[in-house]
Amino acid sequence: MKKGSIVISGASEVVTCSGFKGKSGAQMQDLKVVRNASVIVEDGIITRITTEPLDLKGFADKGFTVVDATGKCVLPGFVDSHTHFVFGGYRDEEYNWRLNGVSYMEIMNRGGGIVNSVKGTRETSKEDLIKVGIKRLNSMVGFGVTTVEGKSGYGLDMETEIKQLEVMKELNKLHSLDIVTTFMGPHARPVEYKQNPDAFINYMVEEVLPVVDERGLAEFADIFCEQNVFSVEQSRYFLSEAKKRGFKLKIHADEIVQLGGAELAAELGAISADHLLQASDEGIRLMKSAGVVATLLPCTAFSLKESYARARKMIDDDLIVALSTDFNPGSCFTESIPLLIALATNQMGMSIEETITALTINGAAALDRADQIGSIDIGKKADLVVHEFPSYRFLPYHIGVSTVEKVIKNGVMILDKQYDLPY
Ligand code: NIG
Ligand code: FE
Description:
Blueprint: E1 6-15, E2 33-42, E3 45-50, H1 56-61, E4 65-68, E5 73-76, E6 78-80, H2 92-99, H3 104-109, H4 114-123, H5 126-142, E7 145-151, H6 158-174, E8 178-183, H7 197-214, E9 220-221, H8 232-244, E10 248-253, H9 261-268, E11 272-275, H10 281-290, E12 293-296, H11 298-304, H12 311-316, E13 321-323, H13 337-347, H14 352-359, H15 361-366, E14 384-387, H16 394-397, E15 404-409, E16 412-416
Parallel strand pairs: 1-4, 1-5, 6-7, 7-8, 8-9, 9-10, 10-11, 11-12, 12-13
Antiparallel strand pairs: 1-2, 2-3, 5-14, 14-15, 15-16
Helix pairs in contact: 5-6, 6-7, 7-8, 9-10
The protein binds N-(iminomethyl)-L-glutamic acid and fe (iii) ion (FE).
The site of N-(iminomethyl)-L-glutamic acid has 14 residues, from α4.
């Protein structure tokens, strides 16, 4: 990974989100903004944040890239901590059925849904998945994302699960974005095991998980704990076996039906529990005491026409709340951070300060990386985004439109959308 040295000078706001672990409750409101400040990066690492005037020519002479951020704000790169971005084929027809009132679970029960993407992904070559993966990652960079998590789970067999994870490993080398990989073999009941989900879980635990582990293909393990998909008992077994092997845990929990996924996440010490539209009060309480990050996915609730997760209660109950896109071909075909910000601030009762915390330091916490990324702090990776407006308050205000102007990854400028007005 290339590393650069850069000075971003005179920003009207440096929104540091300062901190080295996830922020809970009221802490989420404090973005620790430094006004009229510059950020200095050496060899990919943030080394100074200052309000002092700088000798910019001196920096340029020493080989630093110099960026004038006058009238602009600088934020940490966003961390999209929950996506399924490697998949083959699309499900546009299903989305139209949903618009016409057919539910996500009804489509699944009729034999559609995730298994359709499984077919598409099994049939798509590794090379083609890499090509389309690059395109999707480029789009995320345009929204200011600098680290993304990606899950397998569109294979449901050894060959394709491994193929998806290898694609992400390859993309991590080819693309400047950092990719964190999650093994999600138990994402749906495959047609071959429709009537026998226990046997499928055993296959995943006994045959696929050991290969993923031995080959170091994933850092996290995840499962879709949902009525008519995998029960709490099946989820407990799969995740416990993954934990024994050293995988960190995530869980798709209480998305459609209140099954007890939040409680299970707390019991197993998962790093995050995700979705949580139906999480119980007790589940929320247990997640708080176990320090599980609550990852909320508003674009999915929007796309499924479901009610949003209870973000306000979770923050008021002092949880660490993260926000993520859940980009996937079925329940949420969007990687749009501006849409996510619009929904969180306008529909879920989150302030823009809480929303930014949830997309930066708390997204990093959901990936167990809050000590390395997610804030503008000395010693952290220089993943920085210059937004075209003077304040972070423009992010929700410019509704549904990206305010990103420049993206800096490891101190290297990887995107610059700045333009001069023609007259
Ligand atoms: O997070 N809920 C399960 N998994 C994905 C949906 C995947 C799909 O529909 O393809 C989710 O929403
Ligand atoms: Fe998901």
